[in-house]
Amino acid sequence: MSLKNIRRDYSRRELNYNDLNPDPFTQFQQWFDETVQSEWSLDPTAMVLATCADNLPTQRVVLLKDASPDGFIFYTNYESQKGRQLQANPNCSMHFAWLPLERQITIVGQAHKLTDAENESYFQSRPRNSQIAAWASKQSESIVGRDALDARYREIEEKFAGQDPLPLPPFWGGFRIVPKEFEFWQGRSARLHDRFRYTRIDDQWKCERLQP
């Protein structure tokens, strides 16, 4: 089949202004809860994180670890590509694609590093093998092969043998993305999708429909 002939119509649901909560954080939580409870739910916390440095945007999938009116949190190696880019330019966007439900959410905002106490608390909640991996990987740096990475993991495993909990790596932690804009997208038939954008004006949120 030719790529240009691969398509499907979106007709599961609709989204109207009156359906929306005036608070975009509450609206996000409603859609997230529906996604988690859906029979089609798969990796509902996965989001595409877009960053930009030197006028070159990059994207990758990360996992959302907390969502509240204070912002959206994920964790990474601060010395990774995304970690360095966010510290140089905190402007970023997140994108959730819940395609089985024909829904997408895009959030634009600024990233702020978490405190050492916040990082410590989350790091100690991770499985031990994930803690070891955080120490072992110099994220985004080149490596000669998988054997070298596995050897580094075993080296860290031996170094901290019998030590529980593991210490927090000084180069590892989280970012909180504080939104300034949300867009909620619901697929509709004939590509006439429902799109609503929330923008923050002072301490209030303005919601408006966008053309598809």
Automatic annotation (TrEMBL):
Q: Which domain of life is it from?
A: Bacteria
The Enzyme Commission number assigned here is 1.4.3.5
- Under which main EC class is this enzyme filed? oxidoreductase
| Catalysed reactions, semicolon-separated | pyridoxine 5'-phosphate + O2 = pyridoxal 5'-phosphate + H2O2; pyridoxamine 5'-phosphate + O2 + H2O = pyridoxal 5'-phosphate + H2O2 + NH4(+)
> Mind telling me which InterPro entries this protein's record contains?
Pyridox_Oxase (IPR000659), Pyridox_Oxase_CS (IPR019740), Pyridox_Oxase_N (IPR011576), Pyridoxamine_oxidase_dimer_C (IPR019576), Split_barrel_FMN-bd (IPR012349)
User: For this chain's UniProt record, which GO biological process terms are given?
Assistant: pyridoxine biosynthetic process
Q: How is the cofactor bound?
A: Binds 1 FMN per subunit.
Domain Pyridoxine 5'-phosphate oxidase dimerisation C-terminal: residue ranges: 172-212
**Do the record's keywords include Flavoprotein?**
yes
User: What are the protein's UniProt keywords?
Assistant: Flavoprotein, FMN, Oxidoreductase, Pyridoxine biosynthesis
Q: Which GO terms describe its molecular function?
A: FMN binding; pyridoxamine phosphate oxidase activity
Q: Which cofactor does it need?
A: FMN
Q: Which SUPFAM superfamilies match?
A: FMN-binding split barrel
Query: In which pathway is this protein known to take part?
Result: Cofactor metabolism; pyridoxal 5'-phosphate salvage; pyridoxal 5'-phosphate from pyridoxine 5'-phosphate: step 1/1; Cofactor metabolism; pyridoxal 5'-phosphate salvage; pyridoxal 5'-phosphate from pyridoxamine 5'-phosphate: step 1/1
Query: Binding residues for FMN, per the UniProt record?
Result: 60-65, 75-76, 82, 104, 139-140, 185, 195
Chain ranges of the Pyridoxamine 5'-phosphate oxidase N-terminal domain? 42-158
Q: What this chain does, per the record? A: Catalyzes the oxidation of either pyridoxine 5'-phosphate (PNP) or pyridoxamine 5'-phosphate (PMP) into pyridoxal 5'-phosphate (PLP).
Q: Which family does it belong to?
A: Belongs to the pyridoxamine 5'-phosphate oxidase family.
**Record note on quaternary structure:** Homodimer.
Q: Output the NCBIfam families linked to this UniProt entry.
A: pdxH, PRK05679.1
Listed name of the protein: Pyridoxine/pyridoxamine 5'-phosphate oxidase
Q: What is the lineage of its organism?
A: Bacteria, Pseudomonadati, Pseudomonadota, Gammaproteobacteria, Alteromonadales
Q: State the gene name recorded for this protein.
A: pdxH
